[in-house]
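Preliminary data (for renewal application), 4-nitrophenyl phosphate complex.
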Amino acid sequence: MVQQGPKREKLIYSIFFREWIFRFSFVLKNLPDLIDTGYYPLFLSATQNKKRMKQVLFVCLGNICRSPSAEAIFNSLIEKSGLEKELQCDSAGILNVHAREPADYRMDQFAQKRGYHLTSISRPVDPHRDFDRFDYIIGMDRENIRDLQAMARNKNDRKKIFRMTDFCMNHKTESVPDPYFGGDAGFELVLDVLEDACAGLMRKFQK
Ligand code: 4NP
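Predicted structure:
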């Protein structure tokens, strides 16, 4: 039966009210992304200097050698560039076998010689949390990229996956080689390639 009189009016008001609550909560929830993409012009002028912080996640197999080093090197570049309010990074591993362990002591020794402190504690990639939170998810080698692609939930997640060596400016290599089962030279090479790639990556944010 169609409602009549004040009852009908009440119903219409209530539908309108709900609709506006829904719209308002949608805008509030998506505000950072709307502002970030410039899709919400009303806020554009007020937010030009308030862009959402960019988040970078470095990923390797165990999260005890390469990605903790990338994190430390990139953090030192963030500090040197004064971009602490615009850029943040973290690291994670494909495996969880080293979860809650600090960085490999050999990697740490070689990194310390160059002035980097490996402070991260190993953790596995958490596909839901990490693909939601991070803007750039950067793997160290082909296998890392393949495994990340398999974890991605959709096209938007896949767009966030990059290969570390694609940011290199001097080294012509397709991977940051796994140093875990090798000798000293492997750890030095990791740091050489990562310093190059991190500098290239940082340039993208300084433009
Ligand atoms: P990462 O090195 O991926 O650079 O942390 C490795 C660490 C541990 C293992 C392999 C690679 N592992 O097989 O335990």
